[in-house]
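Many introductory courses stop at the sequence. We go one step further.
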Amino acid sequence: MDTIKKFIDNNKKIITICAATLLLIPWLTNKKATCYPPLKDFLPCWVDQDVVVDLPFITSQGVGASHVLAFHIVEMISGISVAEELKKSLCFK
């Protein structure tokens, strides 16, 4: 929890997947997020999407959505054109 707070205090992005999003609950006031769907009742801000970006948080539902999360990360780091080229090279639709 100290590390999460330190990241937030230093304007760093925090990416979670599956149940790990529940660790962010203290900081999700007025934020949207997602997590493993059977745990959605623990998140008052739950959104039914593979990936939810509400900075500084990027949250994903689970392993089945990890490829979508990966493309979001590539897009943030390298831009949309690189992410789209990667999707094309992997035959991702």
